[in-house]
Task: structure prediction
Amino acid sequence: MRQKSLWKRGILAASLGAVLGFPAGSAFAAGEFNPDADQILRSMSNYLAGLKAFSVSADIRNDVLTTEGQKLQLNASSQLLMERPSHFRAARQGKFADMEMSYDGAKLTLYGKLLNAYVQQDLKGTTDDAIRALEAGAGVTLPGADLLLSDPYAALTSGAISSGYYGRAYVGGVETYHLAFRTPKVDWQIWIKAGNEPLPLQYVITTKWMTGAPQYSVQLSNWNTKPTIAASEFKFVAPKGAEKLQAFPVDEAGEVTGKQESK
Result:
């Protein structure tokens, strides 16, 4: 898994604070890799990478620690439509911002509805290029960004030092496989739908060496692997009166905090 993006997102995360009650014998020692976990993760990654288009909804939870040591949970929601190799459109509603992100293969655009302002970057390439540009340039992340790349397995397992398979569990009433992986700085878990559609339904990242073990979590629902897509779906048209900015000021939670001077 990409350490930089995981660390950035993991800092925002928080501990579940619950004993999960795994069955005896399910624990794994540091440095041990579970073949079942690897096989299930590969199956999910291959399935996702093979989808030409899909849409999905996400509920996002960031736990943050205040300077007084209080743990707060920031919640947001998101909707994503992706068409490979070079189109996506996403909306994100959070505490401070109501954002839309779009990429049409030539331009990457972020639009803030509350500000009625947008930033735009010329970018020819793929959805992978657009996702990396969002993270590196704007400081904004798409929920579960590693899952959206063309090779999810490589992104997810980069830096992993051990893995485990913890049997079957339920997420939103759907039966899943529960996997857990460790890296030097963060631990992460993923719940993958059982059956012939191995879709990720929940993804949790824990920053284990920070006080409070903060977590970042995404619960995914309403998957549609054959969405109907209009020809103009990914083309950004500036709303009336919208102002073009050089950049949005974004906080550590990926939320817009105010308005900068226009271009």
User: Anything to note?
Assistant: Residues 105 and 125 are 6 Å apart (CA to CA). Residues 35-49 form the longest helix (15 residues).
